[in-house]
Amino acid sequence: MSFLDHVTRLNRHDLRGFRPFAIGDAVVGHVRHALAERLKDFSAFQVTGERVLLSPALSEVEARTEAMAEVAETLVADGIVPKIRLEEYPVMARPGGSILMRINRAAVPHFGIIAFGVHLNGYVRRPDGPHLWIGRRSRTKNVAPGKLDNMVAGGMGDGLGPRETLIKECGEEAGMPPALARRAHPAGAITYTMELGPELAGDSRQEGLRRDVLYCYDLEVPADFTPVCQDGELEDFRLMPVAEAMRLVDTTDDFKFNVNLVIIDFLIRHGHLDPDHPDYLALVSGLHR
C-alpha cells in the first residue's frame, strides 16, 4: 500500500459496465446494467439498452422523490439496496446545480448519484511536532467498520450546506461546541469516482458507483479540548503524531478508504508531503478528478 495506491483505488472505474441515468436532458448518475434491467419493472423509469430515464410524467421534484422512495423500498426488500437510511440526499446534474429530486442515502451509489460530505482535520501543535485527532469508527457500521477516521466527517443531507453540516457533525461526533467548530477554515475539496462491488469495494461494502465531493476543513484544536463522541459513530479518539498518520496512510489500509485522501491532502497543504516525493504530481492531480 502507498499514498498513490489509495488515490488510484478511489479513481478506478469502468463506465462500460453502466448506463447513464437521466432526468430529462440531465445525466445525474450511472446504473449497472443488471440493475437497469431490474428497473424495467417500475413505471417510474424508461429503460433502453443505452440509458435509464426517469419517467417524464414525473415532472415535479416531490413527485420524483416519492417515486424514488418507493423504488428504494422495493430494492431493499429484494436485498439489492441495504436498509433505508433516515436521510435523503439531493440529486443534481452537477455540484451547485438545481435540485432535480431527492433520494434515500442508502440508494445513492446504486444510482451513481453525486454525494457530498465534509471532513475535518483537527490538529494540535505540540513541542514534539503537530498531531492529528483520529477517531476509530464503530465496528457496527456498515461502511468501513473499525477503521480509523478523521476527527469529524459526515455526509451532507438535503437542506444543509457544508458549513452547517460541519458544525452539526462536530457536535454529534466530537462533542465540540459550535463556537469552536465555527473556527474551522475551508481548505478545498476532493473529488473522485470509485466503482464498487464485491471485488472492488473493499471496506466500503457497497455496490455501484461512488461519485463523491468531500469539502475539507482544518481546525487548530486547543490543547485542553478532548473530543468525545456523542452519537456512537466513533468508538474512541486518539491524538496521533502527524508523522505516524503519514506512515499509516503510506504503508497500511488502517484508515477508511476516503480518509486516506483527506489526510494526503492535509499532508500536501501543510508541507509534510512535498514536491520531492516521486508521486507528488500524480497525488495532487488525483485528488481532484
From TrEMBL:
The residue range of the signal peptide is none
Family annotation (PROSITE patterns): NUDIX
According to the entry, every stretch annotated as the Nudix hydrolase domain falls at 115-265
A Pfam family that the UniProt record links to this protein? DUF4743
A Gene Ontology molecular function term for this protein is:
8-oxo-dGDP phosphatase activity
- Name of the featured protein: DNA mismatch repair protein MutT
Q: Could you tell me which species this protein originates from? A: Oceanibaculum pacificum
